[in-house]
Amino acid sequence: MAEHATWYSYFTHLECTRCGKIESTDKLIGLCSCGAPLFARYDMKALRARWPRTALSHAEASLWRYQPILPVLRKENRVALGEGWTPLLQFEKISAQLGLHNLWIKDESPNATASFKARGMSLAVSRAKELGVKKVALPSAGNAGSAAAAYAACAGIEAHVFMPIDVPKPFQHECEFYGAHLELIKGLITDCAKQVLARKDREGWFDLSTLKEPYRVEGKKTMGYELAEQFDWQLPDVIIYPTGGGTGLIGMWKAFEEMEQLGWIDSRRPRMVSVQSEGCAPIVRAFEQGLEHAPEWQNAATVASGLRVPKAVGDFLMLRALRESHGTAVAVAEEGIPKSVREYSRASGIFFCPEGAAALEATKQLVASGWIKPEESVVVFNTGSGLKYTELLF
Length: 394
What we know:
Distance between the termini: 52 Å
Number of strands: 15
CATH topology of the largest domain: Rossmann fold
Low-confidence stretches: none
Radius of gyration: 19 Å
Strand content: 15-25%
CATH class of the largest domain: Alpha Beta
Structural class: alpha/beta
């Protein structure tokens, strides 16, 4: 345990999600030597004895309320912009449209830079600062680049963002206004990732790509902690999550395991649902075919740019969570997504992002098929604001 005044973290080591190799907390590292993502691990025995969930009654209204089980060791290295502790909302019109009695929307658009990506980047940039990083780089389909640029600006770290050339202009403008070095690439996020990989050693960049460093997932896991707390420690029956790189889904599954070890919840888990577009659905295809890894999706195309991830590093972790939870994976029709954004925004007052609207469309399909029962409690994630996508929606 590291202590600094009232700041304490029980972060003890990193562990490979595939081979189990252990790495120390003071090592700047990306993937394990076997090529798999690393997870931060904690002294759970000490946490269980010293950090009861009642301690949260006096905690700050941000993701940092869970600071003891986050990997930032010293308070001065925290890079924060008010991320987390987002609302959990109900809307009668949407519930009636979908035929559900207990439908909840977890709205991530109030986060810094208007998306859930703020959670991951807050932790990733904090740890980068703590480990002495001066320059970071990443490929992005939109929101991750915006968030990385913002948190890097806050931390005084140089940021390099690579985006597909057709990413909506608001994402590009955000990066530039935060002072990031933006490069537009002809192709997909996978093509942007190739640029980062080819240049990072020569340029001295630390790679913040999804799951290629251990800490973005730690920020995303706080969505799971928040859901448990907001539901008074009884998890919902189903979680519907729009999936590109899948860090949020993977992070929540990690959070549920941690909370059970803490004694905060029991062994009951929600059925996890991965939502993708028919224009880019590698996880859905792999799930349906019973595969452990998802082959790259060719000619990926979707208005929901956050879902346009043809190949994900954490594919096996997503598929594992879906199967362990008795969940499923659903692809929605691409042409219906813009219409769904309008429909659900008008029924709620939230400007849904295309990814969030796709998740609601998937919910409709699952209710119609009987996979979700009308009385079950269901949480659908709206991962960001539709305001950034207006040029694609009109």
